[in-house]
Design goal:
Low-confidence stretches: none
Radius of gyration: 41 Å
Strand order of the largest sheet: 12-13-15-22-19-18-17-20
Number of strands: 38
Distance between the termini: 100 Å
Bound molecules: pyridoxal-5'-phosphate
Largest sheet: 8 strands, mixed
Mean pLDDT: 95
Structural class: alpha+beta
Shape: elongated
């Protein structure tokens, strides 16, 4: 081929220029492998290139190049490429006969000014610009075709496999093995797919001598020249070739390739299947280059042009060989806006959206432990220093001392944290020269060695390895999870006790909640303070050994998809990482200044909650508390069905009851259907107090009386008239005692009944207390207007009335002309499980039922339901109007709550879980003398504590202490009753067996702690 190279003198070239183009000027030769190029500068300062083409080049190819440049001129004339100058005859090509008798085609093109990219620093900005130019160039060529484009070139990416035939020219066996590895990958994984990719005419040789940057600004691409290799081939080859040259001697060659791909993608959107092959194609361009060089060395010993990029090409190939191809591909994909791994962001989202369905990774959900960051992010911290010095025992002792003072139980080493502890050579980056991998890609949980670890999801064991190296993982397990609706992903568990190595093997199936392993101690966990390194990997092609636990900062966005933060998988709360709002101290101070001073706060060290999620309340630092106390969020905090119903109606209409609306009648129909047949008329209010007040208004109109019979220690609401019938208020601090119309009967508390009362007489004997109050009224010539009681007196200490009690009382009241009101504000809506309403357990039907708290799962609404007769009496001409009561939003919420209770059989759940808890409490009672009585039905539960089971001396301090220990251990409950010695529990109706076990464990620990001598 080289024999046919043109060999014209400057004078000859000048005369060709004159004769074909009518131009003259200064000519200087330019470097070229096959052709002869001359830079022409005319007297007017115009610059051209005169190209005398190798005689061996088929005419069709010369014509192809000419047509290509013409196409670009017509379709993308703004691109900085050389534009063709026509001959005097108006042709794009001329020709000439050499002294050897060869015919050479001649072309004159405009000069593109600039500096070769190869001579610049090849900034990422410039490379992105190069990608943009190539993208525009190739996009402009879409649809362009020419017979000359169908060439058979070794430089065609589809012919890269031919490198195998040149391998023997490479003498060094290591070098040959290196090339063989890439060729093998190409043959098996790349070549079969190449034919399926989009093809088009491309430049095919955007090496850094054919690309120009601005003379002054090297970050700007100024031109693309030399179209001698253009052909029809898969389009992605354009990017691969440019990246192969841009990466030569580059500190971060994959970043360089990513910049080109990103720029290209802007104008010629790349496809995932193209990017997935890019790493191999870059490598194969280099393989082609070094093997062609080797073969030419063999032929033409020392043409320096041939070897110009040889050493850097070998270096680059070695770098590519050392790096994980999937990582490189992930970086390239991410640069073009694709997931680092196909489907990775969907997996990340799935974990976020399904976090509440995952089972706890520790004995309790991780968020339920008091947690704190472990200071490995601070290089100056003594613990970090000790750890880096490989003194895990000292580091651990420091941590334990800190935990003992602060009450911390879990140390968190967060994802993405930059750490200095990664000192060994194994942490040197294979992607960026001179950089280290410093950013932690797992989530570390520091706890005592021996802490058991469970899989939050069903899993298949992929690998169980023991890494003996210091600073390795020790025992390392990977699991594969294939949850429904989510692509399979891997979880990696490092620094485990070796015990798992004998118990588990690849292929084993673990059910969600199954034991994975125990945290190892420093003798078996790679010489670290005991902790779990937990990491997610979204690419199931990676093996345990491929998964890096620490990554380069530069690629954190890529690692975030390939190895996403395991926080959701582990059950951490977002609030641990990001806190907002005022400090607790600030809020307390502001409350003191601006709110009523007798607005009470729970716990000496108050809790600031920022989020509710099902059975959990999450505090400002992301600690999750199991809510066993708050019976308002009946079906769970922030229930999605409630939120949705509320939002939908609120965004549609909210008005008052003077206009017609479907919701209020629909809700009245549904609510009354849960009640006995004669309770058919509903009235809606906004709070339990208002419902009770409405009941009193109706009672007064209906009976014409005022007198009340109430149970001792009861509470019915916050308005003055309700305080007046609430001994819990009027008989305690700040109260003024009973008003003349209020008569207080004994609480029918069987546990504290006189010892000489036979249990079967409790109902009758306690009812006598009501009879006595009626007698007192009658002695004054009056009668009762009403009797009101909670169907299970709760403020009085979760007291379950003896069977038949209400039957006796209701009869007495009604016989004396009064009506009976059941306050179901705390106990209603199926909490008892066996029935919708707690009064049903006494086999009575009240005249009025009032309800509130759980009715709206936290939304302020309440109701009273009564008989037609009482409702008609109330209709005495005075309007009943309540601005907010029964509004469309509240009724939509109420409907959603009923839907959930019914459709999820939450009453059944309450009964099952309640029975389980009651059985367990009774079993605990056998172990703890302090438990005097356990009582409950469904999820309305009480445990009464006494210092002496015979005298029943209340163990008030112990009850408060248990409550405080429970809070410290992440469970919310309360104390109640006249002696404040009854532990009160009313968890949400969705409370699960696992939640119940959690509660039982904590109670057990709390009892053990507070009763230990
Ligand atoms: C039994 C009972 N009735 C009525 C009320 C008053 O309800 P609200 O606070 O919604 O006005 C309460 C509140 O604690 C209550 O426990």
């Amino acid at each position: 081929m080289l024999d046919t190279a043109p060999q014209y003198s400057l004078t000859d070239a000048a005369s060709l220029l004159k004769s074909h183009y009518g131009l003259s000027g200064d000519l200087s030769p330019l470097n070229s492998e096959r052709d002869q190029n001359f830079k022409v500068t005319t007297a007017e300062g115009k610059i051209f290139i005169l190209k005398i083409i190798n005689a061996s080049e088929p005419v069709v190819e010369s014509r192809f190049q000419t047509a290509l440049l013409g196409h670009i001129r017509d379709h993308a004339g703004h691109l900085p490429v050389p534009h063709i100058v026509p001959t005097l005859k108006g042709d794009s090509l001329a020709d000439t006969l050499s002294v050897n008798g060869d015919v050479h085609n001649i072309r004159l093109v405009g000069w593109v000014d600039g500096l070769p990219l190869a001579e610049s620093s090849r900034s990422l900005q410039a490379l992105e610009g190069l990608g943009e130019l190539l993208g525009q160039f190739d996009a402009a060529l879409q649809g362009f075709m020419h017979a000359g484009a169908l060439r058979d070139l070794d430089w065609d990416m589809t012919n890269a496999g031919r490198s195998k035939d040149r391998l023997h020219f490479v003498k060094n066996t290591d070098d040959r093995a290196l090339l063989e590895r890439f060729i093998a990958r190409f043959e098996t994984q790349v070549a079969p797919k190449l034919g399926t990719l989009r093809s088009g005419v491309i430049h095919n040789d955007a090496n850094d001598w054919n690309v120009l940057v601005g003379n002054d600004n090297h970050d700007v691409i100024a031109g693309l020249i030399d179209f001698g290799d253009a052909l029809y081939t898969p389009v992605i080859a354009e990017v691969a070739i440019a990246a192969a040259y841009a990466g030569l001697d580059h500190d971060a060659p994959i970043s360089a390739a990513a910049a080109i791909a990103k720029g290209f993608h802007k104008y010629y959107p790349l496809r995932e299947e193209e990017l997935n092959l890019l790493y191999d194609l870059i490598a194969m361009r280099l393989v082609t280059s070094v093997t062609i060089s080797a073969s030419r060395h063999a032929e033409a010993e020392d043409n320096p042009y041939l070897a110009i990029s040889e050493k850097p090409a070998w270096d680059f190939l070695r770098k590519l060989d050392r790096m994980e191809p999937l990582f490189a591909t992930a970086i390239l994909r991410k640069a073009c806006g694709f997931d680092a791994v196909s489907g990775a962001s969907a997996t990340v989202n799935w974990l976020k959206n399904n976090r509440s369905k995952l089972l706890p990774l520790l004995d309790k959900p991780v968020a339920a432990y008091p947690a704190e960051l472990v200071p490995y992010g601070d290089p100056t911290h003594p613990m970090t220093i000790k750890s880096a010095e490989e003194q895990p025992v000292i580091a651990q002792a420091m941590w334990e001392e800190h935990c003992a003072v602060t009450g911390t139980e879990v140390g968190i080493g967060p994802w993405g944290e930059e750490r200095t502890v990664y000192a060994g050579t194994m942490f040197e980056s294979k992607l960026v020269k001179g950089k280290r991998r410093t950013c932690h890609l797992g989530l570390d949980l520091f706890m005592a060695s021996g802490t058991p670890l469970y899989t939050p999801l069903d899993a298949i064991v992929r690998s169980v390895d023991i890494e003996p190296d210091p600073l390795g993982y020790g025992c390392l397990i990977t699991l594969e999870h294939r949850p429904e609706g989510c692509a399979p992903f891997i979880s990696l568990w490092g620094h485990l006790a070796h015990e798992a190595g004998n118990r588990l093997k690849a292929g084993d199936i673990l059910k969600a909640g199954g034991l994975v392993a125990y945290m190892g101690d420093e003798t078996e966990n790679g010489h670290w303070a005991p902790h779990l390194h937990l990491q997610i990997c979204t690419d199931t092609r990676l093996t345990a050994m491929d998964i890096i636990g620490v990554g380069e900062e530069a690629y954190l966005d890529v690692w975030a998809e390939l190895f996403p933060d395991a926080r959701n998988f582990a059950g951490m709360a977002e609030e641990f990482y990001q806190q907002s709002g005022r400090s607790k101290e600030e809020i307390v101070a502001m409350r003191r200044e601006m709110l009523l001073p007798n607005l009470s706060i729970s716990y000496e060290d108050p809790i600031k909650f920022v989020r509710g999620d099902g059975v959990w309340l999450i505090d400002h630092k992301g600690r999750a508390y199991l809510d066993c106390f708050n019976n308002v969020c009946h079906i769970g905090h922030a229930h999605p069905a409630v939120v949705e119903a509320m939002a939908k109606q609120a965004s549609t209409l909210n008005t008052n009851t003077r206009y017609l609306h479907d919701n209020i009648v629909a809700y009245a129909e549904r609510l009354t259907a849960t009640l006995p047949d004669n309770l058919t008329v509903a009235g809606f209010t906004n709070s339990g107090s208002e419902a009770n007040s409405l009941a009193l208004r109706m009672m007064r109109v209906h009976t014409g009386r005022e007198n009340a019979v109430v149970l001792d220690w009861s509470y019915h609401g916050t308005t003055q008239e309700l305080i007046d019938i609430s001994p819990y208020k009027f008989n305690r601090k700040g109260g003024k005692g009973a008003k003349p119309h209020v008569y207080v009967a004994k609480v029918p508390d069987s546990y504290r009944a006189p010892k000489d009362w036979a249990p079967e007489d409790h109902a009758r004997l306690y009812a006598e207390s009501v009879a006595e109050q009626i007698a007192l009224m009658q002695a004054k010539g009056e009668g009762p207007g009403f009797f009101i009681a909670e169907s299970i007196p709760s403020v009085a200490g979760q007291v379950f009335m003896p069977d038949g009690y209400l039957k006796h009382v209701y009869k007495m009241i009604r016989d004396a002309g009064g009506i009976c009101i059941a306050d179901e504000v705390q106990v209603g809506f199926g909490r008892v499980g066996s029935h919708w309403w707690a009064f049903e357990t006494q086999d009575v039907t009240p005249d009025i039922v009032t309800m509130g708290k759980p009715i709206g799962d936290g939304h302020p609404m309440a109701a009273m339901v009564t008989t037609r007769e009482i409702a008609d009496s109330f209709n005495n001409g005075m309007e009943y109007f309540n601005t907010f009561g029964g509004n469309p939003v509240s009724c939509a919420v109420g409907l959603a709550v009923l839907d959930v209770i019914e459709s999820q059989n939450l009453r059944g759940n309450a009964l099952t879980i309640g029975n389980y808890l009651m059985d367990s409490f009774r079993e605990m009672q056998n172990r703890y003398e302090v438990i005097g009585d356990v009582r409950g039905l469904g999820l309305f539960l009480g445990i009464e504590l006494v210092n002496d089971r015979y005298t029943k001396e209340p163990a008030t301090n112990i009850a408060r202490a248990v409550c405080n220990v429970a809070r410290r251990r992440g469970i919310l409950m309360g104390t109640e009753g006249p002696f404040d010695n009854v532990l009160k529990m009313r968890p949400p109706m969705i409370f699960s067996k696992a939640n119940a076990d959690h509660l039982l464990n904590v109670l057990d620990e709390a009892f053990a702690e507070v009763t230990k001598k």
